[in-house]
Write a structure and sequence with these properties.
alpha/beta; single chain; inorganic pyrophosphatase (n-terminal core); 12 strands; Diaminopimelate Epimerase, Chain A, domain 1
Length: 338
C-alpha cells in the first residue's frame, strides 16, 4: 500500500464515519475473517461499521466473534441497502471486481461512498479510490493485519480480532502449507497467538466438526473422482441430486477439490458442482507448481483467482461442461507434465 493511500485512509478515519464492509458472494474463511477482523478494529476505534454479506456463509464460520452481527443482503435486504446508501466509506475485502458480489453489485455501483479495496487476487479493477492490492500475500486476512499495522493499531488488536484474522490466514493457506505462506505470514501468526488467537480451538472448529451427511457427501465425491493420468489431472463431479441426497449445506464441499492433489503425479485438480437454482456448474480449480489455474479459469470459465487456486462457472450441463473441460487438456499436456 503506497504512502499516499495510507495517508488518505488515515485522514478518512480520523473522524467518525459510517462504514460498510463487504466480502464477496459465497464468502469463505478469508472473506469472513478479514471483514470481521476489520469490523472489530474499526468499531473499537470509534467508527460506526457494519458488515454486509451478499449471501449466507458456512455454518463452520458462524462461531466467529461478531458473526451474528453480519447483515445478509438476501435476508436483510432493506437494512443492507440502507447501510450501503448511507455509508461514507465502503471497504471491499477479498475481491477486486464488483461482479463478485452478485445481485448486490447494483447497490454498490450506485453508492456515493469512498471505496477502499483490500485484496490479494490478480487483475484488480479500478473502482476503489484507495487500493491495497498485493497478489503475493497469503490471504486478505494477512493484509488486514498489515493494514492495522500501517494505521499504527497493532497494540489495539484484541483476542477477537486475532481469532478472526488467524482463521482467514489458516484457511486460505491450507493450514500454512500453500506456496503463498511466507516467513512474514508465520511472524503474523505468532503475533496473533501472542495477542490471544486460540490456534488449536480454531483448527478444531473449522476442520474437526463434521456432520454425518457431510462425510457421506465426501464419500460420494471421492467415488465420482475421474483420474486422467495422461494429463496429470483429476476431477470430481457432484450433481444437484447428489447434493440433495446428502442434505448439502453451504460450505460442505469446502476442500473437496484438494483431494485430487494428494494423488501421486496429479498436478491439476478440479471439482464441478451443479447448482440448479442458479442454472450453473460451479467450478473450483487447484494446481501445484507453475500451472496457472487463474489463467485457465479466466480464459475458459469466466473465472479467476490465484496461480494455484481459482474458481469459475459454466452455463452448460454437467456432461457438456466436463466434456468441454477434457477437450481443453491436450493443449496443456506438456505444461501439466513439467
Amino acid at each position: 500500500m503506497n504512502f499516499e493511500h495510507i495517508n488518505a485512509l488515515k485522514k478518512l478515519l480520523s473522524t467518525p464515519r459510517k462504514i460498510a464492509i463487504i466480502p464477496h458472494k459465497n464468502p469463505d474463511g478469508d472473506a469472513i475473517g478479514s471483514t470481521l477482523g476489520l469490523w472489530h478494529y474499526l468499531v473499537n476505534e470509534g467508527q460506526t461499521a457494519t458488515i454486509v454479506s451478499p449471501n449466507d456463509f458456512p455454518k463452520f464460520l458462524k462461531w466467529m466473534p461478531g458473526a451474528d452481527k453480519i447483515l445478509n443482503f438476501e435476508r436483510h435486504n432493506k437494512e443492507a441497502k440502507r447501510t450501503i446508501e448511507e455509508a461514507d466509506i465502503i471497504f471491499t475485502l477479498d475481491f477486486n471486481h464488483l461482479g463478485r458480489v452478485g445481485q448486490m453489485a447494483d447497490s454498490l455501483e450506485q453508492a456515493n461512498a469512498i471505496f477502499v479495496m483490500v485484496d490479494h487476487h490478480q487483475e484488480p479493477s479500478d473502482y476503489a479510490m484507495i487500493m491495497y492490492s498485493d497478489v503475493t500475500m497469503s490471504s486478505t486476512c494477512e493484509m488486514v493485519y498489515n493494514l492495522i499495522s500501517l494505521l499504527d493499531g497493532l497494540d489495539h488488536i484484541t483476542p477477537e480480532i486475532a481469532n478472526c484474522i488467524y482463521t482467514g490466514i489458516m484457511t486460505d493457506t491450507g493450514s500454512f502449507k500453500f506456496k503463498s505462506t511466507t516467513s512474514h505470514t508465520h511472524r503474523v501468526i505468532a503475533d496473533l497467538m501472542d495477542k490471544g488467537a486460540e490456534n488449536t480451538e480454531i483448527h478444531h472448529k473449522i476442520y474437526d466438526t463434521n456432520s454425518p451427511s457431510k462425510l457421506h457427501l465426501l464419500g460420494c465425491a471421492l467415488k465420482n473422482m475421474v483420474i486422467l493420468e495422461e494429463y496429470s489431472t483429476a476431477y470430481i463431479t457432484l450433481s444437484q441430486e447428489e447434493l440433495d441426497l446428502y442434505h448439502y449445506e453451504k460450505g460442505d464441499t469446502e476442500g473437496f477439490v484438494n483431494y485430487g492433489l494428494t494423488l501421486d503425479g496429479i498436478r491439476f485438480a478440479v471439482i464441478f458442482i451443479e447448482n440448479k437454482e442458479e442454472g450453473i456448474i460451479k467450478i473450483s480449480f487447484r494446481s501445484v507448481g507453475d500451472f496457472s489455474v487463474n489463467e485457465f479459469a479466466r480464459k475458459f470459465f469466466e473465472g479467476g483467482g490465484h496461480n494455484n487456486a481459482a474458481g469459475g462457472k459454466s452455463d452448460k450441463n454437467m456432461e457438456e461442461t466436463t466434456s468441454y473441460f477434457k477437450s481443453l487438456l491436450p493443449q496443456y499436456k506438456i505444461a501439466l507434465k513439467q
